[in-house]
Write a structure and sequence with these properties.
Radius of gyration: 20 Å
Number of domains: 1
Number of helices: 16
Structural class: alpha/beta
Low-confidence stretches: 1-11
Oligomer: single chain
CATH architecture: 3-Layer(aba) Sandwich
Strand order of the largest sheet: 1-2-4-3-5-6-10-11-7
CATH superfamily: Alpha/Beta hydrolase fold, catalytic domain
Strand content: 5-15%
Mean pLDDT: 87
CATH topology: Rossmann fold
Shape: globular
Largest sheet: 9 strands, mixed
Order of helices and strands: HHHEEEHEHEHEHEHHHHHHEEEHEHH
């Protein structure tokens, strides 16, 4: 079925994205059309915005382009396990090429969320004759929706966290081996950043450097209000990134505290369901034919900086990956407590890393930047002076989408940052 869907999505023309539903009839039609085939098409629409993308690697869209991008399904060792992958590769090779960069999305999202970052990354690929890969985590996006379960008892926090982390990081290691990559630079967002750190701790010889965008699970204590992921509006305009200062960090924390004081009953219910093992996507799926309208309330509000056509395409993409079979999403209550409080905070583990680590937060982020600040200091105390932290103006949690220019500039800077042999 997956192969047939990919073939259908790779045809020369694609249907335009349907309108964002505002009435029951539209919601019903949208719900009825979701599935593997339309999921592939919704992803393809976003990817075809890239001039260097080709549905068929054997026949690139522009043979003269210095880079070419295509998507593929990478089968893992376990039968039925695979990771949906987009590869952006240089058409030339170089022995001095830096390790490829791997884009890793956040909780319940997918690689399509990075489509506004791919052009800048493709420029880096062309200049450095390297590669960039974007993956869907196992059990999320358009990767295999295999059963997710944890055998450890609820009181065994270490066991629950370790099992949940292994589900993701071991599949990433399996993918790396299948792709024949020796080292990688991991660029992770939110929970994807959390898993990137865990992977680097477990397989340190495989990671060149880490770039963590609004990482989850870093500090001790509650990190913020996760319901802001649903209720926030995209900040308007662009602003440059700046090195994090104590004053800026305190400003972000003050905004977070103000939001907590006005916490609504809906947010409290959100936290309760989280602790009970429900996922936000399970709640959305429970709305059945009304689910497209529920998702529409999010996508219409959250991505106001996109064009009308892009917003429709993002909505259709989000809807399809949200309504797919529940799988990896059920990790959340094992790894994070309500308020995105990590059960095993990264700040207590990160000092073991000997590589460059970059933290990037949005000016209006709901992730607590104090975690990044403390982590950079922990790294320094452990003899690793390659920790850095930045704050991007006019951006919230989806900082790479809210202010792509500033983030893309940072990515280019950090990808080219020299790695110290003394770290």
């Amino acid at each position: 079925m997956a192969t047939a869907a990919l073939a259908a999505a790779s045809s020369s023309t694609l249907p335009t994205a349907p309108p964002i539903p505002s009435a029951f009839t539209e919601s019903l039609k949208s719900w009825w059309s979701t599935g593997e085939k339309n999921s592939a098409i919704s992803e393809e629409r976003l990817l075809r915005r890239l001039p260097f993308y080709t549905p068929d690697p054997a026949h690139p869209t522009d043979p003269s382009s210095p880079v070419v991008a295509h998507r593929q399904r990478v089968d893992l060792t376990k039968p039925g396990h695979y990771l949906n992958t987009v590869a952006i590769k240089s058409t030339k090779t170089s022995e001095d090429a830096p390790p490829p960069a791997i884009m890793l999305h956040g909780y319940g999202a997918g690689l399509g969320f990075f489509y506004r970052n791919f052009p800048a990354l493709a420029d880096w690929v062309a200049q450095r004759q390297s590669a960039v890969y974007a993956l869907d985590w196992l059990g999320m996006g358009r990767s295999a929706r295999v059963p997710f379960s944890v055998k450890a008892k609820r009181t065994d926090v270490h066991g629950r966290v370790t099992e949940s982390e292994s589900f993701f990081v071991d599949s990433l290691e399996d993918w790396r081996a299948k792709m024949g990559l020796e080292q990688m630079t991991l660029i992770g967002h939110s929970l994807g950043a959390y898993f990137s750190v865990v992977y680097a701790l477990k397989y340190p010889e495989r990671v060149n450097k880490l770039i963590l965008i609004s990482p989850a699970g870093v500090p001790r204590g509650p990190e913020g209000d996760p319901s802001r992921e649903v209720t926030d509006v995209e900040p308007a305009g662009e602003a440059p990134a700046q090195a994090a200062t104590k004053a800026k960090i305190q400003e972000i924390q003050a905004e977070q505290q103000q939001v907590k004081k006005s916490q609504s009953r809906q947010r409290k219910v959100f936290s309760y369901l989280w602790e009970q093992g429900w996922s936000p996507f399970q709640v959305v799926r429970s709305f059945s034919v009304w689910a497209p309208m529920v998702v529409a309330q999010y996508s219409s509000r959250r991505f106001t900086g996109l064009s009308e056509e892009e917003t429709r395409e993002m909505h259709d993409y989000i809807l399809n990956i949200t309504l797919a079979k529940g799988s990896g999403e059920y990790c959340i209550s094992h790894i994070l407590a309500p308020g995105a409080h990590a059960r095993m905070p990264l700040v207590d583990r990160i000092s073991a890393l000997k590589i460059p680590v970059t933290f990037i937060y949005g000016e209006h982020d709901w992730m607590d930047p104090r975690g990044g600040e403390d982590s950079v200091e922990r790294l320094r105390q452990a003899g690793n002076g390659q920790g850095r932290m930045y704050v991007v103006g006019r951006a919230g949690h989806h900082v790479y989408l809210d202010n792509p220019k500033a983030v893309n500039d940072l990515l280019m800077k950090e990808l080219d940052r020299p790695v110290s042999a003394k770290a």
